[in-house]
Amino acid sequence: MSGRDVTALDLFCGAGGSSTGLVGAGVRVTHAANHWPLAVEVHGLNHPETEHDCADISGTDPRRYPSTDILWASPECTNQSVAKGRRRPTGQIALFGDKPDPAAERSRATMWDVPRFAETAVHRGRPYAAIITENVVDVRWWLGWNGWILAMTDLGYDHAVVYLNSAFAHGKDYAGAPQYRDRLYIVFWRRGLPAPDLDIRPPAWCPSCATAVDAVQAWKNPATRWGRWRAQYVYQCPTCRTVAEPLAIPAAAVIDWANLGPAIGDRARPLAAATRERIRAGLARYGRPIGLPTGGNTFERQPGTRVWPLDVPRPVVTATGEAHALTVPPLLVPAGGTWNDDATPATLPIRVRTTRETEALASPAGAAPFIATLRRHVQPTGVAGPLATVTAAGTHHGLTTPAGLAVPVEARSGLRARLTGGPLRTQTTRRETALATPADGALLLPYYGTGVARPASWPAGTLTTRDRYALTTRTPADVPDHEIDGCRFRMLTVGEIGAAMAFPTDYLMAGATRRDQVRMYGNAVTPPAARLLAERVVAILEVAA
Predict the structure, then answer these.
(1) Which of 255, 282, 261, 292 is nearest to 369 (CA)?
(2) Which domains does the chain have, with CATH numbers?
(3) What does UniProt give as the signal peptide span (predicted)?
(4) How far apart are the first and last CA of the chain?
(5) 267 vs 391, which has greater pLDDT?
(6) Per-range mean pLDDT, top range of 11-20, 382-391, 452-461
(7) Residue 26: exposure state from Cβ atoms within 10 A (0-12, 13-18, ≥19)
(8) What is the Cα–Cα distance from 138 to 453, expressed in whole angstroms?
(9) Is 38 exposed, middle or buried, given 0-12, 13-18 or 19+ CB atoms closer than 10 A?
């Protein structure tokens, strides 16, 4: 590092996710602007060294702000995203999104503000050395896209388009967000500067090579390089080209397991029928206890050594009697008004977080979580004891829980409850995820119309600005018909949503209501993604210095 003072202007800064990432990359954010007074206030609480401006950016003269090395811009994305509740394959970006008053009236952020600010900087003789624009992946099909790119090219910029899931935005000393959040980043740099290294290679496990690798992005259709992880692209081992699953933090890592919520049957207000069905489907898929044949180490592989549901015949039990363990998963369950269909394991990341609360946690309550240390010959340890030695790599410890379900709880199609052992889905500006915990595991329940509960052992789905996830748990009683009244159920807390967005645990939200906090988190840029890209840009600026 040369020690150069790299500065940035953060447009549409929101509550400060992008600024937090920029600061983490060693960038000094001199000015930040946004149209929502509450977001500006929260940004100021956490970034007091930054000058703040509450203004309608589309109506602001760019000369109002001093010159900086970097411009970060996150234009309005609500009307481009499926989190809105409908897909907009083409068409101009709408000026107004699903925002709280007075934000709805003041939201005039458009993609064209980026070339407008860039052009002004060029005419002032102090062009931005680099510009990073963040948006949803669907913005690529905006009718103005080609003209927008051409305008930036004519202003003297080269560019690259980066499709990055926040769950895989890992750096040298930090990890990505515990949620699956696909975003598009257009990185511009001044013509004449070296191109930044934007080949993001997240650590992944190659099953063929049986080793950790730096995975490479591989498009299913190389002729159309656009889309989301798993749907349009995967990651592969650079050696054998086998599909490799990138490492990710599970939703279970950010869930407060001391708070499982009340039993569904004890609720004064019954759950919606659709939410109950998502929990039922999540339990049917993830809630069954499983038998886990175990081995002493990597080289003791035996035929049939895999997990087996308890309602199928058991593999042979040998005289040692030590080869079988019992485990049950928690789930994240779509819980109303969401396009999510499935409950998903809490052992995976959360779905994309939107501005609404649409997921709940459903958690089976019989099994204790444990830490799985990802090194040879190291046994799992309980969470009540110390961790095994943490090395410089910092990627050897995984949290394994009795799976909960992340349940979408809003009427949007496509999402199921999933285990809490992986990342959450993308978090939006609404409360869309609940935690459902069956007797032996937890479920996150998305509040989406077609959402399905998922184990809390998976990442959460996308977090919006509304409450869309609830927590559901089940009593230890035998419920072969997946009766859900004994499950415990609650929405994810604001703190859990903030953690799913990878915000610092001490981030201040003073003065904001719960709904406003959810909206600010769901609209935010995840700090690890902003930091990772900023680090790549800072590297070329320091070389050119």
Answers:
(1) 255
(2) 7-190 (3.40.50.150), 203-246 (no CATH), 290-327 (no CATH)
(3) none
(4) 11
(5) 267
(6) 11-20
(7) middle
(8) 25
(9) buried
CB–CB of 332/445 below 8 Å?
yes
Q: Which residue has the higher pLDDT, 445 or 208?
A: 208
By the 8 A CB rule, do 333 and 261 touch? Answer: no
* Structure confidence by residue, pLDDT tens digits, 311-350: 555 454 544 444 444 445 567 766 655 656 677 777 777 7
Residue the block writes with tokens 């410089």: 392
**CA gap 425, 353 in Å, rounded:** 6
Between CA 331 and CA 281, with CA 457 as vertex, the angle to 5 degrees is: 25
Max intra-chain CA distance, the chain: 81
What confidence score (pLDDT) does residue 486 get?
A: 80
- The DSSP letter of residue 61 is -
Picking from 316, 340, 307, the residue whose alpha carbon sits closest to that of residue 409 is 340
Examine the pLDDT at 215 and tell me if it is beyond 60.
yes
Cβ atoms of 137 and 83 closer than 8 Å = no
For 465-519, what is the HEC assignment?
EEEEEEEEEECCCCCCCCCCCCCEEEECCHHHHHHHCCCCCCCCCCCCCHHHHHH
Q: Are 221 and 327 in contact (CB under 8 A)?
A: no
Q: Which pLDDT score, from 0 to 100, does residue 424 have?
A: 79
Cβ neighbours of residue 455 closer than 8 Å, sequence gap 6 or more: 282, 286, 329, 330, 331, 332, 343, 344, 345, 346, 347, 348, 403, 404, 405, 406, 417, 418, 419, 420, 421, 422, 441, 442, 443, 444
- Looking at the chain, the whole-number percentage of residues with pLDDT higher than 70 is 68
Separation between Cα atoms, residue 351 and residue 180, nearest integer Å: 5
Angle at 513 between CA 349 and CA 523, to 5 degrees: 45
**Predicted pLDDT at 375:** 40
CB 179 within 8 A of CB 353: yes
Measured between alpha carbons, how far is 126 from 104 in angstroms, rounded to an integer?
34
**For 146-175, what is each residue's pLDDT tens digit?**
999 999 999 999 999 999 999 999 999 999
Q: Is residue 102 reached through a cis peptide bond, with omega within 30 degrees of 0 on the bond before it? A: yes
Report how far residue 472's alpha carbon sits from residue 437's, in angstroms, rounded to the nearest whole number: 4
Residue 399: what residue type?
L
- CA angle 12/16/21 to nearest 5° reads 110
| Alpha carbon distance 272, 7 (integer Å) | 50
Q: What number is the average pLDDT over the span 353-380?
A: 51
pLDDT of amino acid 481:
44
**Pairwise CA distance, residues 124 & 518, whole Å:** 39
